[in-house]
Amino acid sequence: MNIHEYQAKQLFRDYGILVPDGFPAFDLEDVRRIMDHEFPEGKVVVKAQVHSGGRGKAGGILLAEDSQEALKAAQELFGKTLYTKQSGPEGKTVRKLYIEKQTPHDREYYLSLLIDNKLGKSVFIASKEGGMEIEEVAEKDPEAILRMPVDSNKGVDTKAAMELAKKLGFTGKTAEDFTGLLKKIYALFVQRDCSLIEVNPLSVCDGKPICLDAKVSFDSGALFRQPENKEMRDILEENPLEAEASDEGMSYVSLGGEIGCICNGAGLGMSTMDTINYTGCKPANFLDLGGSVDDVRANKAFKLLIREKGIKGVIINIFGGIARTNLIAKGITEAIMETNYQGPVVCRIEGNGDAEAHEYIASCKGNIYPASSCIEACEKMRELLKEER
Predict the structure, then answer these.
(1) Is residue 110 annotated as part of the catalytic site, yes or no?
(2) pLDDT tier at 288, thresholds 50, 70, 90
(3) Which are the contacts of 146, defined by CB distance < 8 A and separation ≥ 6?
(4) Is the Cβ–Cβ distance between 130 and 71 less than 8 Å?
(5) Neighbour-count burial for 14-25, b at 16+ CB within 10 Å, e otherwise
(6) Amino acid 139: pLDDT
(7) Catalytically annotated residue among 198, 258, 308, 379
(8) Position 389 pLDDT exceeds 70
């Protein structure tokens, strides 16, 4: 779950992490008030608040030298659609701004903390090449990327942190403050169940490390024990289908292809998408029904899926270990008939309750076909779409 920069920076303040003074604005009146009462001297940065990187390149970050320029920048940004590498072709509409004091600085650094699945540890990533996309740095100069694993039983090791500071060129009190920064970021990461904390750029002002930008992502699977995290969710920044699926206990990701797929289990879902690609088609989505699925959730899943733009057919790939496939088949076939869906649906259903599940499929009046394997289902769908063309 992503949050906005202004929310991330408030978290940073809560943990004693140095950030420039700044305030969120939700309309032009907020901007006027902030400039009059907080920054009467002017010299601010007006930042679009959207869940996407690359805002600066997309024209979403503007400098203002006085209140008049700040209002002009705000008028330009409110309602603007930003197109970035992460926004998708539909872009991101700017509904919120962050008005922040300009911070003079010389050099920009990159710093992040994330989970390295191979190591099974949290890892700090740092570079002297800040202010640009870290993927570009890694591609052009892999040696510019520095890594510092963290032992979860011990926390941030002071010696290792000081060595990282030295590699970045920090010395003396600045290096000590940088070590303290790493410890504070790690505390935030663990205590608030984060999946990513990113500072790009990090800089130094008056000898102290300061976070000029802040990105925080929470582990969605831990929201049940982090109610304060959930309150920071901005549903308008999310894909409507993905948000609706999440509220129903399902995992959904739009992918832009033509073949919708419904599966139970992330691994099965990913292998199904791979097989769709292998047979020459493109998956429209990833949809994992989640645990404890029943006919009601399966029904909702199908109705949600067919709202995806560009869907030409649907593949159902279900394996019932604990899940009762008969309930899933009941929900899906009822949804097909209730919506009068006319596109082809190919079902591979196996496991707990599959005999009854196949009866539901056979009795369904929709354009539905059985398959005995995932590859057969995908090949069948390919042939059905050729016939329609």
Answers:
(1) yes
(2) very high
(3) 125, 126, 127, 164, 167, 168
(4) no
(5) ebebebbebbbb
(6) 80
(7) 198
(8) no
Using one digit for the tens of pLDDT, what is the confidence trace for 141-178? 888 899 999 999 999 999 999 999 999 999 999 999 99
Per-residue pLDDT reduced to its tens digit, 11-24 = 999 999 999 999 99
Say if CB 295 and CB 334 are below 8 A apart.
yes
Give catalytic status of residue 278 as yes or no: no
SS (H, E, C) the chain: CECCHHHHHHHHHHCCCCCCCEEEECCHHHHHHHHHHCCCCCCEEEEECCCCCCCCCCCCEEEECCHHHHHHHHHHHCCCEECCCCCCCCCEECCCEEEEECCCCCCCEEEEEEEECCCCEEEEEEECCCCCCHHHHHHHCHHHCEEEEEECCCECCHHHHHHHHHHCCCCHHHHHHHHHHHHHHHHHHHHCCEEEEEEEEEEEECCEEEECCCEEEECHHHHHHCHHHHCCCCHHHCCHHHHHHHHCCCEEEECCCCEEEEECCHHHHHHHHHHHHHCCCCECEEEECCCCCCHHHHHHHHHHHCCCCCCCEEEEEEEECCCCHHHHHHHHHHHHHHHCCCCCEEEEEEECCHHHHHHHHHHCCCCEEECCCHHHHHHHHHHHHHHHC
Q: Which amino acid is at 214?
A: A
Domains of the chain: 21-101 (3.30.1490.20), 109-230 (3.30.470.20), 242-388 (3.40.50.261)
Model pLDDT for residues 18-67, shown as the tens digit of each residue: 999 999 999 999 999 999 999 998 899 999 999 998 898 899 999 999 99
Average pLDDT of the residues in 338-348: 95
Average pLDDT of the chain, as a whole number = 94
pLDDT band at 134; cut points 50, 70, 90: confident
Output the pTM of the full model: 0.82
301 residue type, one letter = A
From 6, 98, 109, 110, the catalytic residue: 110
